[in-house]
Amino acid sequence: MAIDPWETAQGQLELASKRLSLDAFLHARLSQPDRIVEVSLPVTMDDGSVRVFSGFRVQHNNIRGPYKGGLRYHPDVDMSEVKALSFWMTMKNALIDVPFGGGKGGVAVDPKKLSASELERLTREFARKLYPVIGPTTDVPAPDVNTNGQIMMWIRDEYEKIAGKQSPAVVTGKSLDNGGSEGRTEATGLGGSFALEALMQLKGESLKGKTVAIQGFGNVGSYFAEYAIELGCKVVAVSDSKGTLYMNQGIKDIKAIEKHKKATRSLEGFPGAEYLDPSAVMLLDVDILVPAALENSITIDNVNDIRATTIVEMANGPTTPEADAILNEKGIMVIPDILANSGGVAVSYFEWFQNMNDENWGKDDVFSKLKAKMTAAAEATFASAVKNSCSLREAAYMVSISRLADK
Ligand code: GLU
What we know:
Bound molecules: glutamic acid
CATH class of the largest domain: Alpha Beta
Structural class: alpha/beta
CATH architecture of the largest domain: 3-Layer(aba) Sandwich
CATH topology of the largest domain: Rossmann fold
Largest sheet: 7 strands, mixed
Distance between the termini: 39 Å
Helix content: 40-55%
Number of domains: 2
Shape: globular
């Protein structure tokens, strides 16, 4: 049976609200998004035919500042998913303590099946349709699954044409030569490694020699892998939707795997590695499992076969509530998505701030500010978990919701 991400999000809100005896008005506000936008996007294809795509933007909540969150291009994008993702952005932005609310959007499309010019026409049409509801102080989109700096540039350009003025802060995750920030590309993966490092330190555990398997080899998974190796971990597997690359002796050179994947469009055939099926990555005998792909990858069907003792949720919503309860019972530490992957939006905030103030920060500066934010969020979450004797996920929600209540 399909698992509805919006139901998952609602369940998480209910749990934390009960523990906090949350005020009825705030509870009602968080239970539904402020605004839902659905647009149709007619696009002339290269062969002259016309296709109409569905685009979404959900503005969940702006108590703490402008709506903020990514745009996803994926065939499975639908309203329920985007609503859940927008709720998670509200929670994430409060936890990482940036002055943003939560929003999310996307287009139901497989961008790999479009030419570059079709992708550009689709994106520009999406930007024109979103124009009335986005802006530097109202709602600020960013990249997410299958979107990137190039797509942000088209949105910025289209927005500025209509607005008739420069507005670099209308989107974040832009490329460096187009108003982006140093360190934004690495931010989510690096932030996750900082969160993991901080929590291991709080637990008095070392990361040296810990084995790691990573599901997903996009921007997030690949940078997380690199930084985990820098922390002394032994990354033994990375996977994509087609297969798992496994190297018992530990992967040394992530960039070489990226090159191989770019050239062959596959993880298969990398010298010295075994190639397993895509589901194998979840069940390997490792210390740390890192879901860095899509929702619902840890479910009732595979949770009992997971052997890792720590899970770092670099994807949004990778664990279903049923599976989460089992992980908790077993004492497996789950670093929840709203903490683990919040480094991306943290550096989006730095980018937005630089744009608004006409500043340019160096990479070292961005990275040390990111580390400070991730460490503070990890410490607040850990302290709340100890105080309330609950999981890190519930603890993180309690920190976020309390901050929303304080506004
Ligand atoms: N898409 C990323 C996320 O899920 C980043 C959002 C942003 O930078 O606004 O957190």
